Amino acid sequence: MARPTIKSFNWSALAERVAESDKNLYAAFKSKSDQYLRRVQVNPESPPKFDWTFYKKNIPLAGMVDRFQKEYESLKVPYPPDNYTVKLSELEKDYSSKIDNFVKESNVRIEEYRQKADKLKNQIPYAQMTMEDFKDIHPEEALDPLNNPTFWPHTEEYQSEYIDKMKPEDE
C-alpha cells in the first residue's frame, strides 16, 4: 500500500472563500500544511534497498544476515484504513445538491428583490406623495374611509373588531 498523500490542492479557491477577518488564520493553516507536506516528501516513499550480498560477504556470523534479510523483507508498515474518503464524497454529493438548491432559491429571491427595488426607484418619493398616490400604490395599507372606515387614531387597537391578544381569555 502506497503512502497516502495529496499531490495537489487548490489553495487559491479556498482563499477566495475565507473571510477577511480570518485571512491570518488561513495563512497560518496553509503554512503549517506546507510544513507537514515538506516533511513527508523529504522521506522516500519506499524503504531503502539493501545490498545483502555485501553484508553476507563481510559479516562472518552464519545465517545472521539471511535472518535479517528475511525479517526486513517481511516487514510491512500498516497504514490506517481510509474510512473517511467515501463518507466525505457522500457528504460532498449531498451538500452540493443542497448548495445548488440554495443558489437557485437565492437567485429567485434576488430577482424578486430587484423587481421590488426597481418599483420603489420608479415610484414617487414618499415626501412628494399625496394620500391618493399612497392609496394607489399601497391599497392594503392606506386609509379608505368609504370602503373601510376606521376610528381615530386609526391604529389597530382602537378599532371595533380588535381583539386584545395579551388579555386573559377568562375575563
Question: Can you walk me through this structure?
Answer:
The chain has 171 residues and is mainly α. The chain has helices at residues 11-17, 23-42, 52-58, 64-74, 84-122, 131-137. The longest helix is centred in the middle third of the chain and has 39 residues, at 84-122. The radius of gyration is 38 Å and the shape is rod-shaped. The mean pLDDT is 85.
Jot down its keywords:
single chain, 171 residues, mainly alpha, 53% helix, rod-shaped
Care to give the gist of this entry?
With 171 residues, this protein is an all-alpha fold.
List the secondary-structure elements in sequence, H or E.
HHHHHH
Provide the β-strand percentage band.
under 5%
Please tally the helical runs, counting DSSP H or I stretches of 4 or more residues. Answer: 6
Oligomeric description of these chains = single chain
Question: Mind summarizing the main beta sheet?
Answer: none
Radius of gyration: 38 Å
Q: What would the average pLDDT be, to the nearest integer?
A: 85
Based on secondary structure, the structural category is mainly alpha
Q: How many β-strand runs?
A: 0
Q: What distance separates the N and C termini?
A: 79 Å
Instruction: State the helical fraction.
Output: 40-55%
Can you tell me the residue ranges where pLDDT is under 50 for at least 5 consecutive residues? none
Gross geometry: rod-shaped
